[in-house]
Amino acid sequence: MLFIGFAILLTSCKPNNNKVPEKEKKSIDNLLTERYQNLLHYPIDSLAFPRSYNPTVKTIKKVPSKDWTSGFYAGNLWQIYALTKNTAYKTAAKKWTRFIEKEKLNDKTHDMGFKVYNSFGQGLKYDNNKNYEEIIIKSAQTLSSRFNKKIGSIRSWDFNKHKWKFPVIIDNMMNLELLFEATKISKDSSFHKIAIQHANTTLKNHFRPNNSTWHVLDYNPETTNVRMKVTHQGIHDNSSWARGQGWAIYGFTMAYRYTKDIKYLQQAQATAAFFLNHKNLPEDGIPYWDFDAPNIPNEPRDVSAGAIVASALVELYSYTNNKKHIDYSKKVIHSLKSKNYILDASTKVPFILNHSSGDWSKRAEMDEPIVYGDYYFLETLIRLKKLRDTTGQN
Ligand code: GLY
Question: Is residue 187 part of a domain?
Answer without folding.
Answer: yes
